[in-house]
Amino acid sequence: MFSPQQKRKIAMKVQAALQETADYELPLGEVNFILHVDGADPLSWANIRNNSGRDVLIPAMLDKNMSVKKGAKKCPRVRGKV
User: Fold this and answer.
1) Are the beta carbons of 65 and 42 closer than 8 angstroms?
2) Of the residues 7, 9, 20, 36, which has the fewest C-beta atoms closer than 10 A?
3) What is the pTM of this model?
4) Averaged over 55-80, what is the pLDDT?
């Protein structure tokens, strides 16, 4: 859904917003996070992690689009299985 450059830009802005909160429960320095974004189309989604958190695993429940329900119709722009 987003290009790698867009994901890095979004991750930098989320990181800055988290650090600005100065919440005592957040670690000093970089905060590890995973942001799951559902697109307008049921098959359109993205997971965005902090830029240095590439070794942070994405939970299995976020590894697919959570808005797709069983029996959902195929997207007319996507070919193949749903």
Assistant:
1) yes
2) 20
3) 0.64
4) 56
